TrEMBL record:
Entries under Pfam families matching the protein: E1-E2_ATPase, Hydrolase
Stored Gene3D superfamilies: Calcium-transporting ATPase, cytoplasmic domain N, Calcium-transporting ATPase, cytoplasmic transduction domain A, Calcium-transporting ATPase, transmembrane domain, HAD superfamily/HAD-like
Bias (Basic and acidic residues) ranges: 1-19
Residues of the P-type ATPase A domain: 158-252
Name of the protein in its database record: HAD-IC family P-type ATPase
Annotated keywords: Membrane, Translocase, Transmembrane, Transmembrane helix
UniProt biased composition (Low complexity): 30-55
Length: 853
């Protein structure tokens, strides 16, 4: 027994357990063991009747798998799973997305026109766009490199059997005919046919929508995208690479995607409207400058370009992409894999986070505190049973590993296992048929005491007392019924009058859970940020409440047993609003809880690491998985914490808030420019006057009041809580700001036209209008930069100083065609700008009070 136990433990370690407490116990074998192989195995219980068990699987001989030569031959023939699993967009996609945009096309055409009519300083906007595009490409490539490196760390590495040994390989190294081993929590990465089954249960809900796990026997088909919820086994691959349609679906679902983002969709909506405004404005400007004013064609074109270019908020898209990319890089340094970029934004909008206890609030490992024999059970025999259970599982989860460490296989010399009922979250227990050295065979169960015992059992009182101390308690019990008996754990009421209880309690196994040291601070952070935390666990409710109480979670003293929760969505949502800690939650209930909270308008994040969390993770607005979690959870989660640190979540929230808050800030700047540019163009067309600006003027103004400061503001720290209705809120401020800026500028321009005369009058008029627009736009920047810090004040003052340098430097005066003439109009411009600044202050404060959201 010792030699066999050491051999099977030499295989791959199991994923950490999900909530529940019971353990899968595969059949023992001679030689190198595996979860898949011969032995009498029993399948799963249905979700409707967790106690029911299907007929045993047919024993199958153990296969050694392919040889090294066979693998090499099939690889040479191209029969390899060569579908690239990409965690990010390709380099070509990134370049294409940054270069081939509608606005780059518009700006490119205008730039080409200016290159023809000249001078070059009126084409500065083209070089700015080129620089912006290059910056966007470089930043996204940096983010791609970060994502790809992290994806390699968190990549699924299936176990295949080759030359009779189990080895881990990369997904794209699997070949046709490989024998792939499966265990609880493993994701099926390619299509195949089951060869060995040891109570193998597969969840295919991600493919079929059917929530109940499917019991797989030899000869059954397994499809990529499904995952194992109980038992073990092995399958032979039948379709690999691009031949497997399901594998293509799995790749497409797990690759880097730009899923729904309020920021991205909002900006796209704005850009769509701007595109429609640009066309008539351009036509109107060309006609007005050619027909109404006696301009040359070249001058008319320059003025038209000067009116069109500032309408395009090209930097807004760039800075949004950069903000997301920088967020990925920053989080990557903390070993946080963001599988979908908008997940950063999504977690910042979350107002409810559902936490799985095991692996999230507690560490995966546990220790056996004590074993308490019940009803006079022989302690030595109890130790032997526990050793037999722990020593026969090649994939021990945290609970069973703790038992195996405390009771090594040597203590169960001579014990053999002839049947098994693997653990499932629906049952919350596992079972095994063990034969003792003397030949006596017994059915032993290990799992949740409140599930295995009838209400009122004396052992339950002791269990409750231990649970209140935050300890996890398993019950070792002997059953008088067969493993495939539907009444395996039911009491007399279910079995008929006069029937004996199905289970005989033998011992309580008390396990100590290790709290994550960072969990208390993280929960405190969520409370301070008005994010409601809900602990939903498969463990005993009292035990979960005790753990939550140790972490000072509000509401931990009022725990709820999920078996008492109503089934209706409205009633369930109401119960969730009132409660904080929920125990004995089934996987389907976790999914229902997420849906119920969402039905109340909550944005829900779900954290977990076990296979029983997959359905809830998939349905949540944001799914967060631990790096040590099962392959299935990592496949459906948007965020994977590769360092397994719950403390990383505040960083993700903070990064999302930085992105959202800062993009909203800079959007105010860019869209204010768009509004005043459109309005100025309309005023020029209606008034039949020359357009006041050349492209170089608006390049100067845009660079100093928008472009340069927006770059710094977009990457600055920002802890403001994310709010919905991005477009509506930005336009509330941008529209009045643009109207004020355009009105002030056009007023000064008309005054200057009546003040100046002579051949150089237009340049003097333009200079006065430029000064006015700069001062008003600078005040908009000063408002957007609040609350002030030393560097924000310095940023505003630096932009103002740069404009002064242009005004007093002869070379720059000539280059930008800005020369203030006299004192009357410059001071008039300052006065109008000051009045406009006061109007802006009043308007922004009124809007803030009138529309507080």
């Amino acid at each position: 027994m010792t030699e066999r136990a050491e051999t099977v433990r030499g295989g791959r370690g199991a994923p950490e357990p999900h909530e529940g407490t019971a353990l899968a116990i595969p059949s023992p074998r001679t030689g190198a063991g595996t979860a898949a192989g011969a032995g009498t195995a029993v399948g799963t219980a249905s979700a409707a009747n967790p106690a029911a068990s299907p007929a045993p699987d047919t024993p199958a001989p153990r296969s050694p798998g392919l040889t090294t030569a066979e693998v090499a031959e099939r690889t040479a023939r191209g029969q390899v799973n060569d579908v690239p699993v990409r965690s990010s967009r390709s380099t070509a996609d990134i370049v294409r997305a940054n270069v081939f945009t509608r606005f780059n096309a518009i700006i490119g055409v205008l730039f080409a026109i200016i290159l023809v009519v000249g001078p070059i300083q009126d084409g500065l906007f083209g070089f700015v766009i080129l620089a912006n595009t290059l910056i966007g490409i470089v930043q996204e490539l940096r983010a791609k490199r970060t994502l790809d490196n992290l994806a390699v760390i968190g990549e699924s590495r299936p176990t295949v059997r080759r030359d009779g040994s189990a080895v881990e390989v990369r997904t794209n190294e699997i070949v046709l005919g490989d024998l792939v081993e499966l265990g609880p929590g493993d994701k099926v990465v390619v299509d195949g046919t089951v060869t060995e089954s040891d109570g193998l249960e597969v969840d295919e809900s991600l493919l079929t929508g059917e929530a109940d796990p499917v019991h797989k026997r030899p000869g059954d088909t397994v499809m990529s995208g499904s995952f194992v919820v109980a038992g073990g086994g092995a399958f032979t691959t039948t379709r690999v690479g691009r031949e497997a349609y399901a594998a293509q679906l799995a790749e497409e679902a797990s690759r880097f995607t730009l899923v729904h983002s309020e920021l991205r969709s909002g900006i796209s909506q704005i850009l769509k409207y701007i595109t429609w405004m640009i066309v008539p404005a351009a036509i109107g400007l060309v006609l007005s400058q050619l027909l109404v004013e006696d301009h040359s064609v070249d001058e008319a074109i320059r003025r038209m370009v000067g009116g069109i270019v500032p309408m395009v908020p090209e930097g807004l898209v760039l800075l949004t992409s950069i903000a997301f990319a920088i967020g990925v890089i920053r989080l990557g340094r903390q070993q946080c894999l963001v599988q979908e970029l908008p997940a950063i934004e999504g977690l910042a909008r979350v107002d409810t986070v559902c936490l799985d206890k095991t692996g999230t609030l507690t560490e995966g490992g546990m220790d056996v505190a004590e074993v308490r024999p019940l009803d006079g059970a022989d302690p030595a025999r109890v130790r032997q049973v526990l050793a037999a259970l722990g020593g026969s599982d090649p994939r021990p989860n945290a609970s069973l590993k703790a038992i195996a460490d405390a009771h090594p296989a040597a203590e169960a010399e001579g014990w053999t296992r002839t049947g098994a009922l693997p653990f499932s979250s629906a049952r919350k227990y596992s079972g095994a048929a063990l034969t003792e050295p003397g030949g006596e065979t017994g059915i032993w169960l290990l799992g949740a005491p409140d599930v295995l015992l009838a209400p009122g059992s004396p052992a339950l009182a002791e269990t409750d007392r231990l649970n209140r101390q935050g300890l996890r308690v398993l019950l070792l019990a002997r059953s008088s019924r067969a493993l495939d008996d539907p009444a395996l754990v039911t009491g007399p009421a279910a079995s008929g009058p006069g029937a004996e209880p199905a289970t005989e309690p033998t011992a309580l196994v008390v396990l100590e859970q290790r709290l994550r040291p960072e969990a208390a601070d993280t929960l405190r952070y969520f409370a301070e940020q008005d994010v409601s935390a809900k602990v939903i666990s498969g463990d005993n409710a009292v035990s979960v409440g005790a753990v939550a109480a140790k972490l000072d979670l509000p509401g931990a003293d009022s725990t709820v047993d999920a078996r008492t929760l109503p089934e209706g969505r409205e009633e369930l949502a109401a119960a969730l609003e009132d409660g904080t800690v929920f125990g004995r939650v089934t996987p389907q209930q976790k999914r229902d809880m997420v849906g119920a909270l969402q039905s109340r308008g909550h944005t829900v994040a779900m954290t977990g690491d076990g296979v029983n969390d997959v359905l809830a993770l998939k349905d949540a607005d944001i799914g967060v998985s631990m790096g040590s979690g099962s392959e299935a959870t990592k496949a459906v989660a948007q965020i994977v914490l590769l360092n397994n640190s719950f403390a990383t979540l505040p960083s993700v929230v903070a990064e999302g808030r930085r992105v959202i808050g800062n993009v909203e800030r800079v959007a105010n700047l860019f869209l204010t420019k768009t509004v005043y540019s459109v309005l100025l163009a309309l005023l020029v067309i209606v008034s039949q006057v020359p357009y006041p600006f050349l492209p170089r003027h608006l390049t100067l103004l845009g660079g100093l009041t928008i472009g340069i400061p927006a770059f710094f503001l977009a990457l600055a720290p920002n802890k403001e809580r994310a709010r919905p209705h991005f477009v509506r809120r930005v336009m509330r401020y941008a529209v009045p700001s643009g109207i004020v800026a355009a009105t002030a500028t056009f007023t000064v321009y008309l005054l200057a036209r009546s003040h100046y005369t002579g051949p150089d009058a237009l340049e003097a008029e333009t200079s006065a209008a430029t000064l006015t627009l700069f001062l008003v736009a600078l005040w908009v920047l000063a408002i957007v930069a609040r609350p002030y810090t030393w560097w924000r004040i310095a940023l505003v003052l630096t932009m103002a100083s740069a404009f002064v340098v242009v005004l007093v430097t002869p070379f720059l005066q000539d280059f930008f065609a800005v020369r203030l003439v006299g004192t009357v109009m410059p001071w008039t411009a300052v006065g109008v700008a000051a009045a406009s600044a006061a109007i802006l202050e009043i308007a922004w404060r009124w809007i803030g009070r009138r529309f507080p959201d």
